[in-house]
Design goal:
Layout lengths: L1 E6 L20 H14 L5 E4 L3 H13 L4 E4 L21 H9 L12 H18 L3 E5 L1 H11 L21 E5 L1
Parallel strand pairs: 1-4, 2-3, 2-4
Antiparallel strand pairs: 1-5
Length: 181
Amino acid sequence: MKLWLVRHAQPLVEPGVCYGASDVAADDGATRACAVQLAHVLPQGLHLVTSPLQRCERLAQQIQGLRPDLMLKCDARLAEMDFGCWEGQRWDAIPPAAFDAWMADFGAHPFGGRESVDALLQRVAAVRAETAQQGRDAVWITHAGVIRAMDLLAQGVERLARAEQWPHHAPDFGAWRQLSL
């Protein structure tokens, strides 16, 4: 079974701002370009599952507009990690003590007070299990954090002890990768 992991297009947010679970829009032209590219390469009849955040949902809607054979569903578990009180703040303005606390317990600490990396991994694992159980190829329109979580889950990692374990690479904005489940 194949799973396409698609990252939304470039968000309309100032570089260096923590936007995680914030519902920011993506560039319309880049979203359209990604939708057109994907519409040409995706097989018929896929399940198209999207994060509810508008930067993903708009891409999914545009893909489905080009490919009505794709069955669209929204799943909140595909949203980006929620950085709580740090959402909308510049990364370089977040106090070093907040980063130190996160790095000391990277997997379990809810950076910003809302969600931990391990919680993100658990919710993504649940969607992955459901997708695998359906036994059909699928495409997820999602975020870098979710895609990185899938990379870890593919390696059998379900909890993190250290920040160094977190994958550094994700697809560029508007790009994707394919996994076998």
